[in-house]
Design a protein that fits this description.
Radius of gyration: 20 Å
CATH architecture: Sandwich
Number of strands: 11
Strand order of the largest sheet: 1-9-6-11-4-3
Mean pLDDT: 93
Order of helices and strands: EHEEHHEEEEHEEEE
CATH class: Mainly Beta
Distance between the termini: 67 Å
Largest sheet: 6 strands, antiparallel
Helix content: 10-25%
Strand content: 25-35%
Length: 221
């Protein structure tokens, strides 16, 4: 055959990376305890809370930086610093913007979940887990509790329009999941683009799970 020696040499690259970062608060036990204290105090003051993406559970108002005191401000500073490390701007520096954070609490009991949603009008979103609600001294054993944090592949609708079985092959050689899940632990801070659809599976533990959600934005001066 004329083409029997034809070979293909290919290198697979990746474009349009979607960063999802999990950071660990080290030396932060005092901060985690103080954040839990102010969160529970706020729930006692405002037991109705708000209804947003939460199904069941308690969602505080979004002004935690105002009523959360020093612990909330310290967390906001860390989240903004993390967002700066993940951000770059065309023909501008970080100092050309006023960095802003918004914060609220989610306290979830058995059966609570969060619908898939986005946080429009922001650059970054983040969540810090204070208590996973599982067993063990730190509540991190959630093997029987569910409540996984999950994302939706933003390319999902395009692929599904044609062939619902299609998956991209990842760098590990395995099919990429449409809705990858994360199982965070106490003290984990997850940050991701605010436009990335995400949610929380139904939580079936017997204790309350506590997390703090945040938005971070950079406003031009």
């Amino acid at each position: 055959m004329a083409y029997e020696n034809l070979r293909v040499q290919a290198h697979k690259g990746a474009l349009f990376e979607t960063p999802v970062v999990t950071a660990k608060l080290t030396g932060g036990e005092a901060l985690l305890r103080d954040l839990e204290e102010v969160s529970r105090r706020r729930m006692a003051q405002d037991p109705e809370g708000m209804k947003r993406s939460n199904v069941g559970g308690w969602h505080s108002d979004t002004q935690m930086i105002d009523w959360g005191g020093a612990p909330a401000r310290a967390l906001a500073e860390k989240a903004i610093a993390m967002a700066k490390r993940l951000s770059a701007f065309s023909n501008a520096t970080h100092d050309d913007f006023d960095w802003w954070a918004q914060m609220w609490v989610n306290i979830s009991g058995p059966g609570a979940s969060n619908h898939m949603h986005v946080h429009p009008g922001n650059l970054w979103s983040a969540v810090l887990y204070l208590d996973m609600g599982g067993t063990g001294d730190d509540g991190d054993d959630i093997s029987e509790c569910g409540g996984h944090f999950y994302f939706e592949d933003p390319r999902f609708p395009i692929a599904m329009m044609h062939n619902t079985r299609f998956r991209f092959v990842g760098e590990d050689g395995q099919p990429q999941p449409v809705q990858p899940e994360i199982r965070p632990r106490r003290g984990d801070l997850i940050m991701f683009p605010a436009w990335l659809r995400h949610g929380v599976r139904p939580y079936e533990g017997q204790r309350e799970r506590i997390s703090i959600a945040m938005n971070v934005d950079a406003i031009p001066r």
